[in-house]
Amino acid sequence: MIVNQLDCDELHARVDALADLLVDTVDGGASIGFLAPLDRAAALTWWKERAAAVAAGQLAVWAARDGERVVGTVSLAFPDKPNSRHRAELVKLMVHRDARGQGLGRTLLTTAEEAAAAAGLTLLHLDTETDSLAEHLYRAAGWTRIGAIPDYAAAPDGVLRPTSIYFKKLAPTDLVR
Q1: Contacts of 162 (CB under 8 A, 6+ apart)
Q2: What letter would DSSP give residue 98?
Q3: What is d(CA 141, CA 77) in angstroms, rounded to the nearest whole number?
Q4: How confident is the model at residue 1 (pLDDT cuts 50, 70, 90)?
Q5: pTM for the whole structure
Q6: In what order do the strands lie in the sheet with 87-95?
Q7: Mapped to the 3 state alphabet, what secondary structure does 113-139 carry?
Q8: Torsions phi, psi of 122, nearest 5?
Q9: Cα Rg for the chain, rounded, in angstroms?
Q10: Nearest to 156 by CA among 35, 11, 19
Q11: Mind listing the pLDDT tens digit for each residue in 70-92?
Q12: Residues 3-34: pLDDT tens digits?
């Protein structure tokens, strides 16, 4: 398994595989902003629209590959305001259903955390569906839950679900593999 950060050209080169991962993740019930069934063309468009943010340095995307197949991804979204340069939002942590249960989610999370710390960031934050598998991953990785918002987002099946908000302070000694 290879995990690497994608530049704009690599994102374009892997857009089909990234779209397949997004469709699989939504079809698998993960609440990542889309309703099921997710049309593959819509998934392709969504990933293509991320390229400009990657090129501008507003978004960092890592992909985990098994051969040419993308089996996981995670991103960091960087704020554009001067008073926010110390933090980023962890977004779109996805693991293909076939690759779950092998530690890939934790590997992707650690990759993003280490890259953020190396870039001098001191704070990460995220939101995730309350009681989801992802929430258990974040807790196990030392993230702090600060609360939940009821009926925040629709799950892929359209049912409104609560969302939990998490943060993690970063320092080189805080990162645990």
Answers
A1: 129, 130, 148, 149, 150, 151, 152
A2: G
A3: 19
A4: confident
A5: 0.94
A6: 2-6, 59-66, 69-77, 87-95, 123-129, 160-169, 144-154
A7: HHHHHHCCCCEEEEEEECCCHHHHHHH
A8: -120, -5
A9: 15
A10: 35
A11: 999 999 999 999 999 999 999 99
A12: 999 999 999 999 999 999 999 999 999 999 99
